[in-house]
Amino acid sequence: MSDPSEVMWNEVVFSLAKDIEKIVMPIFGKPEAGKDVGTNVSGDVTKYVDKIAEDKAVERLKALGINIVSEEVGFVDLGSEYTAVVDPIDGSYNFTAGIPIFAFSFALFRKKKPVYAALYEFATRNYYEAIPGEGAFMNGEPIRVRPLPHAKAAVSFYTRERGVGLIRRVKRVRVLGAIAVEMAYLARGTLQGVVDIRNYVRPTDVAAGTLLVREAGGKVVDEDGKDITVHLSAEEKMNLIAASDGELLRVILEEVNSDGS
Length: 261
Ligand code: IPD
Ligand code: CA
Prior knowledge:
This protein is an alpha+beta fold. It has helices at residues 9-24, 48-62, 92-97, 166-169, 179-188, 203-215, 246-256, and strands at 36-39, 45-47, 67-70, 74-76, 82-90, 103-110, 113-121, 126-131, 135-138, 141-143, 154-158, 172-173, 193-201, 219-221, 238-243.
């Protein structure tokens, strides 16, 4: 078995993403993709497409001897120092409904520290990567967040009803249904913020996105403005506020924490 510190993670993860693409794309938007095949560790329905994508990821990563945290199976403990936090398909509803916004999301941790993250967006074939201290990249080219004054910002905003005043303080709201992809868009400067305050997203959804946004110069905090820590868990539910810069972050926190009056 290979030593995880010697593995070329960029090659391994990219080839895994391409293998998953081969398996899932033939059923994109087809009814069989959305067939209910069980319940995952969070109690949500596992769809057929989630299952086949995850089976491939688990098979490949297990062979490398690392632990895996993935959305459907939960924690697979192989006693390694390294853990991959994976969402084989982020945006499952989009996938089954034929909306082309979904991705494979991967983040590797050594003990509790992130060491590599990647996201493969199937529709555009863009491959995003982040390496702590080295930056964020799309198809090998460096990417950065693109701060704008809040009145010009485009923000992805998931809420039940809290903080809706934010809608009036930014120029555009986009809710794309795949938060990992939305965080990659923030990292490359096409969105300025990603906010989910439903206490609903899990580490598997946001582990890669968090490293991508931070390495691209953005901020990822909780509703108190504290840097979030991504735990090695498939079940924990969290709130997340990611922003390109401090000015927008201040406006978002103000609205999210206001009583609405
Ligand atoms: C979902 C998407 C969605 C977010 C949900 C996630 P899934 O992931 O990221 O944008 O709002 O919280 O569960 O279930 O499609 O992998
Ligand atoms: Ca998923």
